[in-house]
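Escalation from tier 1.

The customer reports that the assembly of two entities below gives different structure tokens on two consecutive runs. Tier 1 could not reproduce it. I'm attaching the input and our single run for tier 2 to review.
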Amino acid sequence: MLKIKDLYAGLEGKDILKGINLEVKAGEVHAIMGPNGSGKSTLASVVAGKEEFEVTKGEIIYENEDISELDPEERAHKGIFLSFQYPIEIPGVSVTNFIKTAINETRKAKKMDDMPASEMLKMIKEKAAMLEIDRKFLSRSLNEGFSGGEKKRNEIFQMAMLEPKLAILDETDSGLDIDALKVVANGVNKLKSEDNAIVVITHYQRLLDHIVPDFVHVLMNGKIVKSGTKELAYELEERGYDWIKEELV
Amino acid sequence: MSFKDKLLSSYIALEDYLEFDSPLHDVRNNAIKIFEEKGFPTKKDEEWKYTSLNSLLKTDYSVYSNKERNVELQDVRKYFLNEIDTYKLVFIDGVYSSFLSETTHDTLDVCLMSAALNKKKYKPVIEAYFNKAAKSDSLTALNTAFTKEGAYIHIPAHKEVEKPIEILNFSTGNEAAMFLQPRNLIVVGENAHVQIIERHQSLSTNEVLTNSVTEIFAEKRAYVDYYKIQNDVESASLIDNTYISQQRDTVCRVHTFSFGGKLVRNNLNYFQNGENCDSTLKGITILKGKQHVDHNTLVHHISPNCESHQDYKGLFADSSVGVFNGKIIVEKDAQKIDAYQQNDNILIDDNATINAKPQLEIFADDVKCSHGCTIGQFDEEALFYLRSRGIGMKEARGLMMYAFANTVLESVKIPELKVRINKLIANKIGVSLGFEL
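Tier 1 run:
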């Protein structure tokens, strides 16, 4: 589904990603771990198409197409979703209206008619119930005054509504208490299928108890320096990252 | 002959029709003297630094309409808030239209300035209130001198008006260019409540210049909720002078929606003459082309323990120009004041301009005054967020503009009006938002 080949990307001529190679197949869950500043969020943003980052080398192949020149919205239309580490507050537009716009814009791009209002409503109800989201919450302004946990839950709600093929969850666990974490993880697991893939970016192994990865990668200094299975995550939790640094030397 | 001279000679002609023994005669005479002396304001005047009337004053306006006016309900119906029942005061080229209006004298007076000026029973009210709040700047004085027609609204004490009152000023274009001067007097008695919607609308593309004056008196514990809809055609200009005099424990709210017109100048003045007043001034301005809208606000805190809230938002596209000049004066005795002023602007295009000038004059020592002003472009992070959800660049910008403007609507108390304005905003932004408004 996603094949990143020798990817170099950065800001203002300075590469942050320095030769990333990663393959994610449908049905898989990948976790990307690594210390602060290693380039995890940059990788997520570059795949989602944030224009401020410049790809200087390499390819991002998604469903057999190099998407590195596509606009963020075009990538979204193709089924790529990024759950933001810091979701943006937009006063003046409700969660419901925002999601309606997102869904209908995606449908428009696919030459489909707007989703019928009744269908939309039903879907919103269903997904909100799955994530234990209150109806009142949906009429509030997008992310405005939301707690950290509410913001993250709202991100997963959007994911549930948009039904992406490739979901990248950037630090979705930060700001969540253990109960909220379970609800969110449970929601993500329900959305998992043979046809989609999930990339989880996290500092901590905690989330991976609930969203169990097939593969774990360690990102350091813009490169994936070690890959393994979920056991690697436990090892990182226990021993930190220094031993990997030493291994590399 | 300059337009000023034309007005001065028109006044001499008007004088022949006036009753010399009317108490108003002196008021008019004084007013025309002020106008004669000061003339139209120019950019040299500090208050008019960013707005020039020069190009407007080159037009040869008719001061009175002589031709027949032919307006059917179907021509103007869409400008009424016809989703709900309202009182209506409709003026066509400055002349009252009884056919289109719905007035009342039943417990409250919703009627005409011309009637109020001429009938004996209104005399005490006119003497007590007329021109008592208005400042004596030249444009207000010009309007005062020519006072003839407009809305006269008198809400007796303890009356809660059950439906909004609409004041609609239409111009037909029967004259090549028209100068209009509506004069409104609104007296809201003790503990009375009223909602008013005011609109100026040209029905043609002929030039119109309106110099409107509205005086609002809120007696103690009164509640006044006032909405100005400025969505006129691009050949129409408006100078709106509004004066609000608040007695103690009153709430007066004015929302100004400036979406249209060629040049609009809003002079909105609040005077807090008693304790515990609440003044709210909110505005949304959305401009494109060469439109020019100038908000000049004054909140005069004369008494202690009062609040004022100002929140103006503007979106400026193409080479449009916005001005926000917000003055807050806190007098020495006006302790424990909480005055808040916020003005946020987004410049959509490189050629758009905003001139923002907050002015705070504080003579009391125990007050809370805060003001903020932002001028920005779109937040790139927010745009990326929207685009990552599949919303295209144009729509993402549209949604951001809609959201930005929409926050001001939260305080609109008439649901049907809120929906109307909401639709107007979406329409001005010109993108489909993917949800029903």
